[in-house]
Design goal:
The chain has 17 helices and 15 strands. It is of the alpha/beta class and 462 residues long.
């Protein structure tokens, strides 16, 4: 199936053709681990996980790299405030990030490089840029000379004045040009750093990804580079300049990356999410409000390139949608699923620039067909297609019974099981009034009981 992706660089939807037939390379900018992940951090993780799943169903190999920034001024500040090494901060919040992403159905990437594990590669790339005449040392800093790369600004479409203002650059006296950006900077006493040809210091933000791409995907063209819309400038603009100039002799005139993809912002109740407004929503807190799978569906409810307006109503709607989908699967518990791919109409939606709203509509159409189907073979076919479609979106991978019960290890679940045992004892004693009272009490809490073959099971009401 032909796949079309919107390329930020060309501003058009293009047919996707990987550099190597049957093999896709994809790099996505990952977390800076100094705090808990908010819902805006989760959107690219979920979006590009769906893209990875879909590409893996079409190509023999998908090499997916998502980095971790584990040295940064915010990390340094957090470590200083607690009086601990930066590793204590980064390990804590990387573990929390992994837990949040796992709850949202996002598995680890194939490769997860860290900045601190690539300092030699960063230094080596900076040396190449200096040797090629694209970077220079000044007062213990190394800076990229922007005028040396004529195509600078093409990704963001900004003119020179906009770029300088947008980057909020410090027009330091040692800069040759106001737009030049830092590749290496000195570390004062008490700030983490590494020995380098330019003194004890640490890398600038932008050079990190360029070096990690080289180290993990090679210096040839990368098929797909992804991230949030806020990374287009200056981060990705600078990556293009660095990687192109450092690898000019190896790229053979080809672009550093063939397809640039960026997801839109997440707003909260139609307002920009920001600390100043006090509306930053942490994934770990949202997990107390709804299952991770519902958070994932809510993140996929809008096209990835468009802004997503997050609200409590939207999250409840996502949970209700999953209830309907799992209810359809619940009617097929005793049906053997046919080994089939997702329907062509569903796959076509994902092939059209990852149109997840259209794909979700196709998934609901399958559920509607399940609810009407009578023929056993058709029910088996629909179940197979529904499960295959859900897998591509990272949905419907639980047993319906488990979905409706929720967390069976939670205090509420233990309490419900205890109530069922009391009801069982009341029925054995023929105390029907007490048995009915317990059933009614649970029903009032949205817990439905079902007695079948001497066994009582429970689920949450949709």
């Amino acid at each position: 199936m032909d796949i079309y992706l919107h390329n930020t660089l060309s501003r058009t939807k293009e047919k996707f053709v990987p550099v190597q037939a049957g093999r896709v390379t994809m790099y996505v900018c990952g977390p800076t681990v100094y705090n808990f992940a908010h819902i805006g951090n989760a959107r690219p993780a979920v979006v590009f996980d769906v893209l990875r799943r879909f590409l893996a169903s079409e190509y023999a190999e998908v090499v997916y790299v998502r980095n971790v920034t584990d040295v940064d001024d915010k990390i340094n500040a957090a470590a200083k405030a607690e009086g601990v090494p930066i590793g204590v901060i980064t390990e804590r919040y990387l573990a929390a990030y992994h837990a949040d992403m796992q709850a949202l159905g996002v598995p680890p990437p194939g490769i997860e490089p860290k900045v601190t594990g690539h300092i030699p590669q960063i230094i080596e790339m900076i040396q190449r840029l200096i040797a090629n005449g694209h970077a220079y040392e000044a007062e213990s800093h190394v800076l990229f000379n922007v005028p040396s790369y004529p195509d600078y600004g093409r990704l963001s479409g900004r003119n020179r004045d906009e770029m300088i203002a947008g980057a909020r650059v410090d027009v330091a006296p040692y800069k040759r040009d106001a737009a030049d950006f830092v590749l290496w900077k000195p570390s004062p006493e008490g700030v983490p750093g590494w020995d380098s040809p330019w003194g004890f210091g640490r890398p600038g933000w932008h050079i990190e990804c360029s070096a990690m791409i080289d180290a993990n995907l090679g210096s040839g063209p990368v098929d797909i580079h992804g991230g949030g819309h806020d990374l287009i400038f200056p981060h990705h603009e600078n990556e293009i300049a660095q990687s192109t100039c450092a690898n000019s002799g190896r790229l053979g005139g080809q672009p550093f990356c063939r397809y640039w993809m960026h997801n839109g912002f997440v707003n909260v109740d139609a307002e920009k999410m920001s600390k100043s407004l006090g509306n930053v929503l942490l994934v770990r807190d949202l997990r107390d409000q709804a299952p991770g799978e519902a958070i994932r569906l809510a993140l996929l409810s809008a096209h990835y390139r468009q802004p997503l307006d997050w609200s409590d109503v939207g999250l409840r709607d996502a949970k209700a949608q999953l209830d309907r989908l799992y209810r359809a699967l619940e009617t097929l518990q005793d049906v053997q699923a046919a080994d089939l791919p997702a329907p062509d109409s569903f796959r076509a939606a994902l092939a059209d620039d990852l149109n997840t709203p259209k794909a979700l509509a196709e998934l609901h159409a399958l559920a509607n067909a399940v609810n009407k189907a009578i023929d056993p073979d058709e029910r088996g076919r629909l179940k197979g297609q529904m499960l295959a479609a859900g897998k591509l979106l990272g949905l419907l991978e639980q047993n319906p019974v488990s979905w409706f019960k929720g967390d069976e290890d939670s205090g509420e679940a233990v309490e419900i099981e205890a109530a069922i045992e009391r009801r069982k004892a009341a029925r054995a004693a023929k105390n029907w009034a007490e048995s009915d009272r317990i059933r009614d009490e649970l029903a009032a809490r949205g817990i439905l009981l079902e007695d079948k073959a001497g066994i009582t099971t429970w689920r949450r009401a949709p």
